[in-house]
Structure formats: C-alpha cells, structure tokens
Amino acid sequence: MKKLDKLILSSFIGPFILTFLVVVFILLTQHMLKYFDDIIGKGLGIEVIGQLLFYFAVFMTPIALPLAVLLSSLIAFGNLGEHFELTAVKSAGISLVRTLLPIFFFVLMLTGIAFYVNNNLVPKAALEAYSLLYDIKQKKPALDLREGSFYDGIPDMSIKVSKKFPDGVTIKDVTIYDHRKHDGNKEVTVADSGKMYMILNERYLKLELFNGHNYAEGASTNQEMAGRVKRNKNETFSRTRFSKTQVVFDLSSFALERTDKKWFQGNRIMRNLGELESDMDSIDNEVLQTRLSYYNEIRAIFSYYHITDSLILPAELYQFKINRDTAKPTTESFHFDPEIQKRGEKSARQIARLDSLASSADTTARKSTARANAVRAQKVPKRKNLPSKTSPVSVQPVIVKRTFSDSVIAAKIDSLFLLHAGKPHYENAANKARTAKNQLTATLAAMDDYDKDRRVFLIQWHKILASSFACVVMFLIGAPLGAIIKKGGLGVPFLVSIMFFIIYYLLTMTGEKWAKQGFISVQVGVWTADTILFIVGLLFLRQARLDARLFEADFYMVVLDKLKKWAILKKILPAPGS
Predict the structure, then answer these.
(1) Mean pLDDT, to the nearest integer, of 58-70?
(2) Considering the entire predicted model, what is its pTM?
(3) Which long-range contacts link 23-28 to residues 24+ away (Cβ below 8 Å)?
C-alpha cells in the first residue's frame, strides 16, 4: 500500500469510528426517550437495561452507518483541503478520483458489512429488543411504599405507612388490610412501628411489626371454617395483641416474565431476505387459493345463469390447482385449454353449438320414450268372469297412469313463465343478489389485504438492500463536498451532513409511504432516495474534479455578473429578423 493510501485511510477511519459511535448514541437516546415512561420505576436490573440498550444499538446500525460515512468523509476531505494536502496531491499529478479510491474500497467493504448486519443481526436484535420491551411494559412497578398513602401493588393486600425513616428500613404507624378472602376489610393489622427487609434475592418482603393488634371479623368459628352456614346472624370478632410479629409477602408477581419470542417473529422488521421471500410466497399462495375459491363459489352465486357452462381457469390458477390436487381426484367442471383461449370467441361458439346439438338429441330421445310409455299406459286389459251383483267381492282400485301430449307439456311450461312474480319471488331474488354482492365484496377485501401485506414485506426486502447501498451514496456526496468546502472539524461538515441526511430520510419515508398505499411501485418508492442522491453525488464529484467553488460568495457573484451582462446585451442588440 502506498503512503498516499495510508494517509487517506488514516484520515478517514479515525473520524468514522468516532462519528459512528456518536451517531449511534444520539439515535439510541432519541429512540429510548419514547419508552422512558415504560422503563422507569419498574425496578429493572443493570443486566436488563444493558440488554435493551445493546439490542436497540444494533437495531440502529442501518441508519447510523450511512450518516457516519457521510460525516466522516466530509471531515476527512475537508481537513485535507483545509491543510492544502489535496492541492499538493493534485500538483503531483494524482487525480481526485485516484485519491478517493482507498476510501471507496473501504466503503465497499462497509457496504458488505452493512448488508450482513441488516440481513442477519438486525432482525434478531429487533426480535430480542421488542420482546424484552413488551415484557418490561407488562411488568408491575417496583415496590414503593410512600408515606401517608395505601399501597396495593401486592395482590390482595393493602399497606399504609405513616412515616419512613432515612435508613430505608424503619417504618412507623403501619396498617395492613388483608383481602385474600375477598369479603371486605375484615382482617386488619395495626402496628406502632416496624422494619422492612427484602429477603431471598428480593423475592419476598419481610415486615417485622412491634406493639400492635390484629383484628379479625367473621369466619372464626369451626362451622364457618368447615363451610357450614350459621343459623344465627351474629358474626364473631377477635382481637389479638402482639409485641412483635413477622409478616412475609410474596413478590413473585413483580418479577420480569419473558414471553415466548414466536409471538413476535411475524413482524417484517424481524425477518431476513430468505424469510421475507418465504412470507411473500405464502401470500401468493393465499391469493391463488382465494381466487380459486371464488371460482368454486360462482355456481352457488349464479344459480340459473350459465349453470351448464364450463369455466376456463387462467393459466396460473390451473397450475396451482394441479399442484394442489396432484394426488386427489376432483369433480369440478373447470378445465384449462390454451388452444381454446387462442381461438377465442369463435371456438367458444362452436363448443356451444355442439352442446346444443347434444342437448337437442337428448331431448328427442326423451320425447320418444315418453310417447311409448303413454301408448302402453292407454292399453287397459279386458276383465273376464265378472262376479254377479249378489256375490260379495272386494273391488281393487285400478291405477291408470295419466299422460300428457307434448303440446300440453309445452303449454304448462309456458304458463309457468307467464305467471306473475309475487313478493316472495322478489325477496328471494334480492337476497341472492345481496349474497352475491357480499361474497364478492369479501373476496375483494381479502385480496386487498393480501396485496397490502405483500407490499409491506416487499418494501422490507428492498429496504435491506437499499440501506446497505446508502453507504456508497453518502460517500459519493460527502467526499466531493469535503474537497469543495475545504473546511474540517465538526462545524460546517456536521451542518451539511445533517441537511443531506434529512433529505435522504424524507425521501425514504415518503417513498415507503406511497409504496404502502399503492401510489407507486415498491421498487420506485424504496430506491428513489438512493437514486436521486447518487446522481447528486456524481454531480458533486464532477464539480470537485473541476475545482468548482460552489460554497464561495465570489463564485455566485461572477455568475450574477454574467447574468446582468446577458440581460443588458439582450436589450441593446436587436432581435434576429427585425
């Protein structure tokens, strides 16, 4: 490695490490302020707070890395320009692009590290952080007995202390209400003074009470304790005096209970690229299943319209159905024929004509069978050896099958269509229409939900890549700007970096919002910020190679003088063709 490369890298790595730690600290502080009220007063140990801060620090890495690259590159090249080191390098015949190469390769390595962190560490850190934060929110506040007020944090107990001494142990005028039987304030303990201790790794609270009384009302007889009901309505009352007694309270309800992490794994920020792709495939299968179910419900919705028609499934639905029902026979009347789709309406009319011919032939056969049955039914056999009128005989009824001619049947069918539709018919038709509308609305709503979920997962998939590539984009902005500004330190570079980071953040948030709402595609919404700032960085690089003075007042004064001269010449010189 040449001495120039070592000089450039040493001037960049130091500010990068410092700015990265500072940016992580600032972002972490800003993020933790949102959960300040949920953490304070819970009696959390140093280990729990340290775990929460560490996980959130890893979670902030994708945002901190691009900002640290931008700020450190501004500082590094601003210092080189301020001390005329860039001028000496250019005078030696070394171009600015060659000067940027060592840091550019280092930033490429940082981009790979950022991708690994975004894809592997950040999802795990987010899962640990937010599951731990949820458990902290569910945890009860720490034991805090305040003077002159009742404390009911311990289940089924209410404790009042009139005064607490500075040693944190001695207390005075203690009153304890025992509500474990859920029958009111019938068990009360009053003491003149006492001492309070935490025992067995703060799992239990021990109170040593002095000079007091214990009052108990109600269930003190053997009958009540055995569960029998007293015949008389007189209640018992007992009072016990003590000079010293001990009361122990279980504080297990104050412990931090961890929830199973599987309930949080479905969130998009806790998934890597492979898991996001699997989630999107699952959503695609759900969409295909919903569409196929709708095709299955068409016959139930449209009871009389094209009931004998066969539905042609789209290619993707047919393939999905084949894959799903490979080992299962089906009786559905769906079929997929690409040739039929290519031939279009002409082939459909031919198939309909064949179906009509088959149905007419079937109708003719049924008519012939009906005529033969009618002729056989009209041939009634003659009865012989009729009995006399005087002989008793049982008469069996003769069943004659009644038949109608084709004209009569047609007339009856026509009469059905000529009947006036009554109110029940209209109500039935309206109910079927409402059912069809509701089913169609539910299907469309489900499809919209699936589409929104898929966009959310796709946004996160692209965001992992875009946030990693942002390191290169911020370097292309910061390094040329530092060479143009020629100001080191944390003053001007910090202001410029904050301005560009705000622009990057606004473009990213706006693009993601519009992509979630479906106004623009996901790719455009996620990559717009990187694309715009990448072009701006290339423009800044071009201006830095030309030694442009974009941030000097003389540069703009010269441009303004040129505009004034151009305006004056336009007024003096006649227009062409006049």
Answers:
(1) 89
(2) 0.64
(3) 23/64, 23/67, 23/68, 23/71, 24/57, 24/60, 24/61, 24/64, 27/60, 27/63, 27/64, 28/53, 28/56, 28/57, 28/60
